[in-house]
Amino acid sequence: MTYQLTDGSLPLHLPGTFKPWAVQVGHSKILLRGFLGGDDGSTPRVFDVLFQDVSRISLADQYRGLDVTDAGADSLRAEEQRVGRVWRESKLFRVSAEHPHDYVVAGYLFWAEVSVLATETSPLIQESPKPGTIKDNQVFRVRWDR
Question: How many whole angstroms separate alpha carbon 96 and alpha carbon 103?
Fold first, then answer.
């Protein structure tokens, strides 16, 4: 393993411009990628936020900053009732304070600052990320049951 996995906590506030960036159907993953800086021609800092075991998404095409919170069991149950589904082993993660109806229902949330070019695949999606692609070798995680 080329990184240390650390239990993170919510709420998660990340600056920058975030966009839905990649989907991987094999493990039901969706990646939001954020860019901070770079307006002056320098290389921007890149933040990847990966949801895994995704059951449902409602996302915009872009966010100014990311504010991920656990919507709570009542909100999850209300959305289950609204759409006629039951999601066991999942949380309803809200992604924006400005857009309360934007969310991801998932079992896991991972995030890290990454050392890749904007056009490169996220090391969080890769099964064995290349050494040096995750800043400080630190990946944070929130699980559905915590």
Answer: 8
